[in-house]
Amino acid sequence: MQKEFSFYKIFSEFFILGLYSFGGPTAHIGFFQENFVKRKKWLSEKKFMEFVSLSQFLPGPSSSQVGFLIGLQKGSYWGGLAAWLGFTIPSAFLMILSALIIVSYTNTNGMNEAVKFLNGFASVAIPIIAAALINMGKNFCFEIKRLLIFFISFFTLLIWEFPFEQVIIISLGFVLGVFFNLKDKATKDAKPHIVEIIISKKNLNLLLLIFILVSIIFLILLPIINVYNDILYLQIFSGLYKSGSLVFGGGHVVLPYLEKEFVFNNLISKELFNGGYGLAQALPGPLFTFASYIGTVIGASNGIYHALFLGIASLIFIFFPGLIIATLAINYWDRLMKFNWVYNG
Question: 33 CB contacts (<8 Å, ≥6 apart)?
Fold first, then answer.
């Protein structure tokens, strides 16, 4: 039986990494590998790569999911929580602090003055996002069938705007993946094998039930309610939950989801949004902590305590679905991958 570590030990290891892990999801995974596989021997190279492979198949923040799974393996639920908190807190703290400073500066000097330095941050984000998209294209669109799915999805989103468009497009991609019988890039037929992390069947089924109910509320019911009632909290939390649930490919891909939910709905100005995202590129840790910046900026109009509450709550709502999905997947993965149509989708 493998040795379990304390909450504090796991938290402190990931907190230190969170202080200097610059460079986005790919770089984060490299830091994890160097620290936990090569130096500390917390897990084998094989198991680590299985976690990485799994995260590429799931929606949510890929590097945070890998870190969470390492913590889950070394300390069960509390270990997973410790890993996520440790890796996330440094970046989230800096994003919330930056949001408060930017809002204060904007209120004092006006938006025109604030835009001058916000545009600098926004300009930095453009080439970084472009590079991330190019790398993702190389990894995911390496054959004609995948390129066809990409262009169908791209032009559908470009031409039409319709309710639940992200859910429908992702579902369409799944169906086309089954139809085209898509395989993995490296082996074309091999499926990632995951050594299961044992969680009691009772707890696992309870977690699955909770996740399904919460997802129905935040992905279906609240968006419908928001059509008829502009309730700020519901709008913010459902938008963040939707973004965290549907984004594949990590932090850079979440940008258009968040822009649609918050800029297009006039909850945050485009200048503050783009400037904050550019700033996030310069900070260590997961890019999903950009959500805490958004929540803080929106809440700042009602005072610092409201800003802090929305900043922290926003962080929880965008990360929650991806981490729960990872917990469920690590236990159900082998069973699901026995079905070729699920793997191909």
Answer: 45, 48
Q: Which residues of 227-251 are buried (b: 16+ CB within 10 A; e: fewer)?
A: eeeeeeebbbbbbbbbbbbbbbbbb
Instruction: Map residue 275 onto helix, strand or coil.
Output: helix
* Alpha helices, H only, the chain: 7-20, 25-32, 45-57, 62-109, 111-140, 144-159, 165-180, 201-216, 222-228, 232-246, 254-258, 270-281, 290-299, 304-336, 340-344
Instruction: Kindly state whether residue 59 falls inside one of the protein's structural domains.
Output: yes
Q: How many other CB atoms sit within 10 Å of the CB of residue 41? A: 8
Q: Residue 256: which domain range?
A: 7-142+185-344
Tally of domains in the chain: 1
- Residue 129 maps to a domain: yes
Cα separation, 72 vs 194, in Å, equals 14
pTM of the model: 0.78
- 226 vs 248: CA distance, rounded Å: 25
- Tens of pLDDT, residues 190-208: 455 555 565 677 788 888 8
Domain assignment present for residue 57? The answer is yes
